[in-house]
Amino acid sequence: MSEAGRGWLRERRAEDADKVDFPELFFDLVFVISILQVSHRLATHYDALGFAETLLIMLALWWVWIFTTWVTNWLDPDKLPVRLMLFALTFLGLLLASAVGKAFDEKALLFAGAYVTMQVGRSLFALYAFHGHSPDEFSHFRRVTIWLVASAILWIAGALLGGHIQLMLWIAAIGIEYAAPAAGFRVPGLGRSEGDDWDVLGAHMAERCALFVIICLGETILVTGRTLSDMPMEPLTFLLASTAFLTTALMWWIYFHFGHDRAAEEIETAREPGEAARTIFTYAHIPIVVAIILSAVGEEFVLSHPTGETELKTASALIGAPAIFLLGNVWIKRAATGRIPPSHLIGLALLVLAIPMSLVLQPYALFVLAMAILAVTAACEVYFLRRALAHLRGKETEKQDGEG
């Protein structure tokens, strides 16, 4: 068993140890469907209850994905047993995605059953892989499994009981799972997991999360293309198409231009890489994902009804999405660099000022305004970064002149 486990682990010192493997990309495919389902569900249930239910579903999808990413950060997807595990998770993920739209109706048990099987089954597989080979990871996943089994009871019970009790039990279940990493998966008699116990490949985690962000951004492109295909070709349609594309491109720019690579470096050099990875990737990416999904919903609203009075749901999505997105990037960049980007604070302030404008602007105009605020944010970040770099180079030049 020890030899089997050793054969399934990633080689930490290999040159390509942190590369994302094709089986992981295959696993990601099912989340394209999941994000589409979540976006559609939110668009058709855009009220307090619908938002709460859809948010809970999204949190569950993110959690099953990020937990799998943690496992493949330690186990090698090119090894046959690990690859088969990912294939099994992909099939279960397909069932999970098919149940998203009716997770609080007749497909509640399918959603809960698929989710629980993915979470607990993957954890048991990792437990087997580490047994007799890696004591730290084995102890860690023993605690993880106990927490997931505890939440699984609530997931299944909620699906069986239905109604408002289902929502309450599922909130409790997801609450347990989200509290677990922050609590170090503490179990009486088994201790807790410490950040310095986790050997994390930062570049792998960063690339995996970046790929998930791209999946979400792809959803906005799909929504735009699907909706525009039924619209007449006229100047307003071109304006909407341009604004939708630029909004997606600007979110890509703000996320990837600075912070993504820095986050990977932070994990690799941190004194407690597990703690840093937990903050940056496990938790701080959640608002990024929520914001992009909400942005896709806002685009669907404004593309469907571009003129006339701006409804509250349209305004809340158009302004709320970039605000949440910038807050998520502030969290990531603050954790990775130790600083809060002033450009993002400028963008957030402008979005606050845009709130009263939603009362007088038509949907398409508010859409353009929100995109313009993202453009200002991106431009300010480039300016501040160049100024900081020039200042750093100036100090280095002065130091060299002084030594000379």
UniProtKB/TrEMBL annotation:
Q: Does the keyword Lyase apply?
A: no
Q: Which domain of life is it from?
A: Bacteria
Spell out where the chain crosses the membrane: 51-72, 84-104, 110-132, 144-161, 209-229, 235-255, 276-294, 314-332, 344-361, 367-385
Tell me which species this is from: Xaviernesmea rhizosphaerae
What name appears for this protein in its UniProt entry? Answer: Low temperature requirement protein LtrA
Please name the Pfam families in this protein's record.
LtrA
**Which InterPro entries did the record assign?**
Low_temperature_requirement_A
Presence of keyword Cytoplasm? no
Keywords, alphabetical = Membrane, Transmembrane, Transmembrane helix
